[in-house]
Specification:
The protein is an all-alpha fold and 95 residues long. 66% of the residues lie in helices and 0% in strands. It has one domain.
């Protein structure tokens, strides 16, 4: 695991990913079931589907940024570095 603290852009990206994940969960919770009462696939509101696709796209962009960041890739222990970033992102903000 790297000795230095993770760079702020990496911590910010992880926080943005966590926020997007929470937003996707919120959107999914408010969406109707994908299946109708007869068990067939029901229609999904196109606006909701587009919003969910946009959030998933942002999550993918952030995941690629995080996993390809030089601090992670050059750490010698990618998992340990990722855990350090995750812990820093979840830590309460200093005031």
């Amino acid at each position: 695991m790297p000795d230095a603290e993770p760079p702020q852009d990496l911590v910010d990206a992880r926080r943005a990913f966590l926020a997007a994940d929470a937003e996707l969960s919120r959107l999914a919770a408010g969406a109707p079931s994908a299946f109708g009462p007869d068990g067939r696939v029901a229609g999904v509101d196109p606006t909701l589907a587009e919003r969910m696709d946009a959030v998933r796209g942002e999550m993918q962009r952030l995941a690629l940024f995080i996993s390809g960041h030089a601090w992670i890739t050059g750490s010698g222990n990618r998992y340990g570095a990722w855990k350090q970033v995750d812990a820093a992102a979840k830590a309460p903000a200093e005031q």
